[in-house]
Amino acid sequence: MSTHVTSSAAPPPGPTGPQGYPARLTARLDAPLSRWLWLVKWLLALPHHVVLFFLWAAVAGVSVVAFFAILFTGRYPRPLFDFTSGVLRWSWRVAYYAYAALGTDRYPPFTLADVPDYPAHWDVTYPEHLSRGLVLVKWWLLALPHYLILGFLVGGARLAWFSGGLIGLLTLFAGVALAFTGLYPRGLYDLLLGLNRWVLRVAAYAVLLTDAYPPFRLDQGGREPGTAA
To answer: pLDDT (tens digit, 9 = 90+) per residue, 177-187?
Structure first.
């Protein structure tokens, strides 16, 4: 499998100013979608879940190394940063395909890199400097309010946010709507993208990729706020 990581080429990244966040989730809804494929995506996505289990185990070790690197140097080593952000990117593609969105029937690629023509993207701006003090508290104390919210959003998910909680329930509703109408309710899609965006922002903060505190804000839809339509 490829582990080369490139920056997202499309859609264009969102801003990192007051209305934006350094971690950016974007997606487009594919159409038409199969009425029944979603019933077996849990099986089709199983190889990804197996690989991601080991990748997330590696992220745990990488995060320990990154913690001490930031503590002593104020920098997240770029190769480790690219690996961790790549795992998050891969996880989002699988989640988008399967039971966090059902937004595409196109099978996710096995790669950490961005795939420009795939309908789901995630990227994060590399920070030239990270706070040595914040690294001691942000991933457990400062992020605690968000963890409580994420517990409601993702429920008992085991790998990232693949199922469970409010996201899993709303995705089930989307699947039922597809089965009976062949259509994905647009308002439901936009809401699911906003909830997943919240999860990814907190994930980026928790694994030390950014010092920017995740906003308590539900930015719905497939584009980041402030990005041209």
So the answer is: 999 999 999 99
124: β partners: 23
With a cut of 70, say whether residue 1 has pLDDT above it: no
What amino acid occupies position 194? G
- With beta carbons less than 8 A apart as the criterion, state whether 116 and 33 touch: no
Evaluate whether 101 touches 38 at the Cβ level (below 8 Å): no
**pLDDT (0 to 100) of residue 5:** 40
Say if residue 11 is preceded by a cis peptide, omega within 30 of 0.
Answer: yes
In angstroms, rounded to a whole number, what is the distance separating the alpha carbons of residues 120 and 93? Answer: 6
Please classify residue 19 by burial: count the beta carbons closer than 10 Å to its beta carbon, then call 0-12 exposed, 13-18 middle and 19+ buried: middle
Alpha carbons 24 and 11: distance in angstroms, whole number: 10
Tell me the pTM.
0.88
Query: Which tokens in the block code for residue 205?
Result: 């903060």
pLDDT digits (tens, 9 = 90+) for 165-174: 999 999 999 9
CA dihedral 48, 200, 124, 113 (to 10 degrees): 10
In this predicted structure, the answer to whether residue 220 has a pLDDT above a threshold of 70 is yes
Residues 117, 10: Cα–Cα separation, whole Å: 7
Name beta bridge partners: 16: none
- Where are the alpha helices (H) located in the chain, listed in sequence order? 41-44, 46-73, 78-97, 144-154, 165-181, 186-206
Query: First and final CA of the chain: distance in angstroms?
Result: 33
| pLDDT for 162 | 47
